[in-house]
Amino acid sequence: MEICIISALCLCFLLVGDVVEVEASHHPYRNLQSLSGEQPYRTAYHFQPPKNWMNDPNGPMYYKGVYHLFYQFNPYGAVWGNISWAHSISYDLVDWVHLEPAINPSDPFDINGCWSGSTTFLPGEKPAILYTGDDIKNRQVQNLAVPKNVSDPLLIEWVKSPHNPLLTPIDDIDPQNFRDPTTAWQGPDRLWRVIVGSKINGSGMAILYRSRDFVEWIRSDNPLHSSTKTGMWECPDFYPVSANNTNGEEKFSKHVLKASFKNQDHCILGNYMPMTDKFEVDTDFLDEGLDLRYDYGNFYASKTFYDSGKKRRILWGWVIESDSESNDIEKGWSGLQSIPRSVVLSGTGRQLMQWPIKEIEKLRTNKVSFHEKEVKDGFIFEVPGITASQADVEVSFDLPNLDEAESLDPNWVDPQLLCSQKGASGRGRVGPFGLLVLASKDLTEQTAVFFRIFRRHDNYVVLMCSDQSRSSLREGLGKTIYGAFVHIDHREKKISLRSLIDHSIIESFGGDGRTCITARVYPKLAIHTESRLYVFNNGTLSVRISSLNAWSMKRAQIFPMQNRRKQQINYK
Ligand SMILES: *[C@@H]1O[C@H](CO)[C@@H](O)[C@H](O)[C@H]1NC(C)=O
Ligand SMILES: *[C@@H]1O[C@H](CO)[C@@H](O)[C@H](O)[C@H]1NC(C)=O
Ligand SMILES: *[C@@H]1O[C@H](CO)[C@@H](O)[C@H](O)[C@H]1NC(C)=O
Ligand SMILES: *[C@@H]1O[C@H](CO)[C@@H](O)[C@H](O)[C@H]1NC(C)=O
Ligand SMILES: *[C@@H]1O[C@H](CO)[C@@H](O)[C@H](O)[C@H]1NC(C)=O
């Protein structure tokens, strides 16, 4: 056994049975970590490469005790281009070591870019990557890569198949709209299935292919699903999900089909019949924007994987900058990954619930709590004693008598518009109440994450908003106000909110993860120790905080492996 000294400069990884020592140094990139007064928007516990452009998460997996994340990466700059598959590894999805890119554009079938794709475990637990290549003719084709050495838990080297490209855009397939293969699955007939995102004759769709050997693929007569209302489907994802019942009942087991379009990740739930590959959807993609989305804010091109170690489904999503490209170039990087989220089906079987993975809680420190505190009309108070620019806050509100809630015009159907027009700065009856995040002391900068409850017909409508309109004194930023409804059982008379705050990102989970909204914000004043966190209520009816727990978050250890140390990874 090697002795590994754990220090700020060293990450030590222990594998069951073997010892893999990875020594990593942040030295070359010190100025890019948000340790000092510089780089106020660099995150401390979200996944980021040391520098440059990142977009979609690719091929996440758990293999021989190691989590792998690949991602779309430009090795040469902070803008999109020259896309390769960068590669990082982790033991807990919190601390990461960056390895060398696993797949680079080098062959006629991917020379213009190695675009998104997924990992599948072939028999014998052998991982295989299917990815899109932008080929020498600028056509989108699907390629295969496999590890050079499957005994290496770090899977450092990948080999492209001599059979590439496996899938090409023939017949009615548009060569510019054919990408992002999913994880494949095997049917009862032992044939592999995979879907690829496309748009044909004006409809977004998931083209279905089948294969016996994972090399030769035959297109199915029918797509798995299609829609006239969506445009091109990017990054489709298709997987089973069940309710998080402790008694193991899978009463509401369903399949999720996700497609990325119009800047958000839209989902439909349904029943999949593996014999016939029929997917009967509960509610299809809709015109009005009322369909299910993983996140109603800034969250795109996501991908899930099944974590066989902890028996859970985990979701990663790309969170793009909403600052200008010239500022991205100046700061030297662009793009974040969300905190990995577990995904389960809600008890009603009609929606998904997401929650930050438990492991992230290891970064919590300096806990501050309140209990049974009344927040009266127009009241605002600070949550003191935490680093509000790098924090995790969970709050649960007891609701007042909802009989007195304002009634909502039945014509108000667009929650995002409602949030813009009935924002935090307006007064209401039950709400707006919630958090003011990344706020300056004088409140000239603040991002309000809040609820407001209305009566409609015989029922109640809970609106959740993330209002970036006052998030920064800086000009030239995207400051969209996001909004969505939260489908809670109002008879419980309470609602919870959790926000993960990390310098330039706020990930908020309403109603125990029924509704999620992620925002990027770039405050001018409310940075580092100048940032504050408040609770507010601008409704005339009091709400009660049954409990509030807030923590400062420690920095995750996310470092590149030093090139010169690479040969010193020891296996015993
Ligand atoms: C892509 O790489 C080439 C060669 O390294 C470089 O000249 C070019 O600027 C890069 N493009 C982008 C968008 O990074
Ligand atoms: C493959 O990886 C294993 C485990 O890390 C190692 O022992 C072996 O030497 C590697 N084989 C080759 C050919 O590199
Ligand atoms: C698209 O339209 C063409 C011409 O009508 C037809 O041959 C083809 O089957 C259609 N494709 C799909 C997937 O609907
Ligand atoms: C699922 O259930 C487990 C055990 O009860 C719990 O720890 C976990 O937080 C639950 N996950 C979600 C997403 O509700
Ligand atoms: C509450 O409402 C008042 C009056 O409209 C407004 O000045 C204040 O900014 C609001 N509070 C918040 C947190 O938006």
Automatic annotation (TrEMBL):
Superkingdom is Eukaryota
Positions of the Glycosyl hydrolase family 32 N-terminal domain: 46-356
Q: Which InterPro entries match?
A: ConA-like_dom_sf, Fructan_Metab_Enzymes, Glyco_hydro_32, Glyco_hydro_32_AS, Glyco_hydro_32_C, Glyco_hydro_32_N, Glyco_hydro_beta-prop_sf
Coiled-coil boundaries: none
Q: Please give the CDD domains that the UniProt record associates with this protein.
A: GH32_Fruct1-like
Q: Does the keyword Hydrolase feature in the UniProt annotation? A: yes
- SUPFAM superfamilies membership: Arabinanase/levansucrase/invertase, Concanavalin A-like lectins/glucanases
The Glycosyl hydrolase family 32 C-terminal domain extends over 359-552
Gene Ontology MF annotations: hydrolase activity, hydrolyzing O-glycosyl compounds
Signal peptide per UniProt? 1-24
**Keywords in UniProt for this one?**
Glycosidase, Hydrolase, Signal
Could you mention a single GO BP entry for this protein? carbohydrate metabolic process
Protein family per UniProt: Belongs to the glycosyl hydrolase 32 family.
Protein known as: Glycosyl hydrolase family 32 N-terminal domain-containing protein
Organism of origin is Carpinus fangiana
